[in-house]
Amino acid sequence: MSNQPPYEIETDGSDGEVRVHIRGRVDVQCAQHFLDDLVRAAAGSAGDIALDLSSVEYFDSGGSVALLGLQQKLTGSGRALRVEAATAEIEGLLRLIDFEALARPLTQGEAVVESVPERIGQATLDMLADARELVAFIGEVILGLRDALLHPAQVRWLDTWSYMHRTGIAALPIVSLISFLMGLITAFQAAVQLRQFGADIYIADLVGLSITRELGPLMTAIIAAGRSGAAFAAEIGTMKVSEEVDALTTMGLDRTRFLVTPKVLALLFMLPCLTLYADVVGILGGLAVASGGFDIPIVVYLRQTAFAMSAWDVFSGLLKSVAFALLIAGVGCLRGFQAQTGAASVGRITTSAIVAGIFLIIVTDAIFTVLFHYWA
């Protein structure tokens, strides 16, 4: 098999410039060999290079890459490359390539360093825009719930039951564990101080009130934000990335009624139930510590709990859980609709849904606590 290249190269120099005449065929298979020959031809002179391609029978992208490689080498030594003559076909191919732009060395953009006031201002503007979008979306959700109340037959109840199972029944194990441990920890911490005064019986008061008023609703909502809020954001975000949400809009379907309302209804139904369940389990955690570690009879503990608590203590926690459910579902769905393109975007909005949900839960709980203190 012959290693003879399918082209011929002749050079002649005048006026400090090297003229390279090429004949034959230049294709991808011989591109590297062609480049090496051109470099050797250019090495015979320190002047610019002029190419004559008028006698070339075939010239494809491999030849173009070879010319680009030659130009890059010449540019590094302060020399230039130009095509002196070529066939119409070769000229058409070369016009498609911006050799100057490709040969130009890459430059990194200057890093823009923002001052601290600029960062604070931009972060404030982003937060205000996000808050405005959240308020608008919650209003959209409330209108969707109003339509569901006025026209219950239009609600997608099969999806609602499915979300109720996922957000409620499937969350029972983790809610049980966290609530029991919270009641147990609260009882131990209360006993450390109360035993100094011989007031062990008041462990029941402290555990019952703290669990039903604060810890039960708060911990259950945080668990729901990590489970349900993230799941809602990831589900809708994946649909947004795959353009399923756009397809629903194109078909004339309301995204709120189709995607958001079943999720919100499911969490509105199940989070108060989970909160009530967490209250019971948390009180049982305190009971386990009181009866097992401080010899308080079970009947005495339960009677003291009933004496210390009122219906309002339980109802206030359930009222908080309703607000928490609306926030968790609203933030999760909103973050899902804010997804852009790619799997990384879904990951970012899922994380954002959890962080924003927990933040809003704590802020809302603080607001409720202050309001209940002064007006309840």
Strand and helix map with partners:
Elements: E1 7-14, E2 17-26, H1 31-42, E3 49-59, H2 61-76, E4 81-86, H3 88-95, H4 99-103, H5 116-150, H6 157-167, H7 172-194, H8 203-241, H9 244-250, H10 255-293, H11 298-308, H12 311-337, H13 343-375
Parallel strand pairs: 2-3, 3-4
Antiparallel strand pairs: 1-2
Helix pairs in contact: 1-2, 5-10, 5-12, 6-10, 7-8, 7-10, 8-10, 8-11, 8-12, 8-13, 10-12, 12-13
What's the short story on this structure?
This protein is of the alpha/beta class and 376 residues long.
What does this protein look like?
The protein is α/β, with parallel strands linked by helices. Helix content is 71%, strand content 9%. The protein contains 13 helices and four strands. The chain is elongated, with a radius of gyration of 37 Å.
